[in-house]
Amino acid sequence: MKKLIIINGPNLNLLGKRETNIYGNLSFTDFFERVVNKYPNIALEHYQSNIEGELIDKLQEVGYSYDGIILNAAAYTHTSIGIGDVVKAIETPVVEVHISNTFSREEFRHQSYISPNARGVILGFGLQSYELAIQSFFD
Ligand code: DQA
Q1: What is the pLDDT of residue 1?
Q2: Could you say which architecture CATH assigns to the domain 2-136?
Q3: Which residue minimizes the CA distance to atom 2 of ligand 1?
Q4: How many angstroms does the Cα of residue 89 sit away from the middle of ligand 1?
Q5: Is 110 designated active site?
Q6: Inter-residue contact 61 to 90 (CB < 8 Å)
Q7: Which residues contact 14 (CB under 8 A, 6 or more apart)?
Q8: CB contact at 8 A, 15 and 28
Q9: Which residues share a beta bridge with 8?
């Protein structure tokens, strides 16, 4: 059974009540429950932190044993050389995900420190972006 983890960065714990016009009305917990039920043949985990160093610790922890990492580093995508470096360092492939189409938003969201070392990038499909990323690990 493939072992995948979704790692979410800052403010994504507020999904469902944060800027709902951009990020939708569904909480991540509810979405995650649906996805876990939909894909019973995958061991899927979820981790969220608002703290940059904790995200780096988690990436180091899972990055040599899991089959795939689905990473939405949220605002740290655009600022964190540390997260960019750990994505480069680890062996597990990372798919970068964003709920919104970051390229249709402010200029500062066009820069990503993760993309150069990600296996691929999926953005702009709402929460479905996460599901598409999961599917990218199917044979
Ligand atoms: C986001 C886009 C980022 O620019 C923003 O800071 C987020 C969420 C997204 O999923 O669309 O917090 O990563």
Answers
A1: 93
A2: 3-Layer(aba) Sandwich (3.40)
A3: 74
A4: 23
A5: no
A6: no
A7: none
A8: yes
A9: 48, 72
pLDDT at 108: 97
| In the block, residue with structure tokens 């985990």 | 45
User: Residue 24: what pLDDT?
Assistant: 86
pTM for the predicted model, two decimal places: 0.97
Cα torsion angle, 70, 73, 79, 81, sign:
negative
Site residues for ligand 1, CB cut-off 6 Å: 11, 72, 74-75, 77, 98-100, 102, 109
The position carrying tokens 């876990």 is 36
Question: What averages of pLDDT result for each successive group of 10 residues across the chain (139 residues)?
Answer: 97 93 91 96 97 98 98 98 98 98 98 98 97 95
User: From the CA of 98, how far away is ligand 1's center (Å)?
Assistant: 6
Q: Give the ranges where the chain is alpha helix by DSSP (H).
A: 20-23, 28-38, 52-62, 81-89, 128-135
Q: What is the pLDDT of residue 23?
A: 86
Whether 23 and 15 have beta carbons less than 8 Å apart is answered as yes
Query: Alpha-carbon Rg of the chain, whole angstroms?
Result: 14
Catalytic residue among 23, 66, 113, 130: 23
Please state the domain extents for the chain: 2-136
